[in-house]
Amino acid sequence: MLVMGIDPGLSRCGYGVVRQKGRVTEAVAAGVIRTDKDDPVPQRLYELQVELADLMDAHRPDAVAIEQVLFQVNVRTAMGVGQASGVAMAAAVGAGAEVSEYSPTQIKKAVAGWGAAGKEQMGQMVQTLLGLPRPLKPVDAADAVAVALCHLAHRPARTRIQAAR
Fold this sequence. Notes:
Layout: E1 2-7, E2 12-21, E3 24-34, H1 41-59, E4 63-67, H2 75-94, E5 98-102, H3 104-112, H4 119-130, H5 139-164
Parallel strand pairs: 1-4, 4-5
Antiparallel strand pairs: 1-2, 2-3
Helix pairs in contact: 1-2, 3-5, 4-5
């Protein structure tokens, strides 16, 4: 199972790809797609769409897990995150991947065991779970990998629920 996690953002969109074979989970790729704040929003969304489509074409994920936009203090930031999330969903569907969304609390509980875990703790858990020599940087990439790990943690229950339907 190959899962791409997305930490959506218009200025910085984190992505992480993990592969699970049996009980072994390994990091495949992680990084951040950046767009220029001085460019018009439609241009930035297009650039994000192209980059995400290229990544999905290169990695061919079975599933794409996206962090849900639940609350932002800054309305302008929330709009950009929501738009980036929509672009990511559309790119995933275009790539033929299953799409799932997870709240920040679900992600933190699945990866760190505590829904109020901080960024540093999450980064350390991602490092530990994947056996990486050091924490992933920047934090957006580590957050995206955490979203992918959350999907893998929830997958058995989701599969049972779908089978029951």
